[in-house]
Amino acid sequence: MRFFARIILLIMCLSVSVNISAKTLKIGMKGQEITALQNSLVAAGYLARTVDSEYGSTTEKAVSLFQKDKGLTITGEADEKTLKAIKKAENKGYRNGGGIVYAKGNLGIEVEKWQKVLYESGCLNGDVDGIYGTETFNAVELFQKNNDIPVSGAIDEMTLSALEKRKEKIDLARKNNNIYLYTSGDVGKDIENIQTKLQEYGYLDGDIDGIYGNDTETAVKKLQEKSGLAISGSIDEETMRELLNTKNVYDKSLHKKYIMIGDSGTDVGELQNKLILHGYNPGIADGFFGNDTETAVKLFQKDNNLEVTGIADSVVIKKLKKAPYFKGEYKKKIHMQSTAYTPLDGDGNGKTSMGAYAGKGHAAVDPSVIPLGSTVFIEGYGYAVCDDIGGSIKGNIIDVGVDTLNQAYQWGYKEDVLVYVI
Q: Single GO cellular component annotation (predicted)?
């Protein structure tokens, strides 16, 4: 009898032992087992908070992301299989984006601080209340998308670093009494993200190149006009929030589809540059649609079998976007080296040395080789007015104007380009 009692007792002990070792750790639990789990998550690169022995929202998110990355069932709970996998992953690299710092469910002053940055960045539409809820989760996701950070909805180390940099920029702008977050002349990844949004909503026709130039400024003005904001062409906090509001899709049917005599602005300057590129003379590309520009449009329409109105409608604009061709008339031809420059190169004012809108259709030359004001046709490029100079433009070299940094890279450096002086 005693023998059987001992067997039963042994079986009960083994059963308890198995249950203890196979216990699933989950949110709300505390103790040494949670400490061990958190230390393992830190070592595996999934947690970047102080180990506090409490299975809270951050630990749950770290476990969920680990399970997702390793192809395990995503529960946010650390069962035996998950615990073994986390232990095995210790000191073997870090999660893409780094360890989790804050997650949905967290509360406090730190959460409130980053909510404010998200709000001022135009990502958070909800309250700045220190509660990491659904609205904050969505705002973090949007911020991550805008900054090419792995999207998780949790503030990981990479996201925190980006938020810190954004806060520094906002604080500096306030210190300098500058209300703008971004303005003409700014460059970088943030500008690319802004341009992507502007293009997605139909405001921007130009390239996404990370340069806040004339095209981007014009697009921002269109957004501000539609949204009833002060029209500055620069991005303040209000404009940023409107930019990230998907209701702001540009309705082109409500806006002018043509450019005509008396109009002025960057749209006209771009039209004039395109006319020059195709070999038509609109006068100085000053952004004003006067008689010379009207005459150039009429001639272009005539040569392309279009109705001759002198108005640059959508048909004219579309044809001007096609590659220019050489008409065959010239005085002499020169073999030259060639580079390219954008409107923001040099002093960055967007104008040539003769006061025209810089970009395609303009070129910088050495006046001793090609006199300023000359019109040329550049092989592989098109027509240009030589109305600019540069400190490094000496001898047989021509610096062609382009509209974006990407176009400048595409043109690159050319050892031998045939230039026809018209």
A: outer membrane
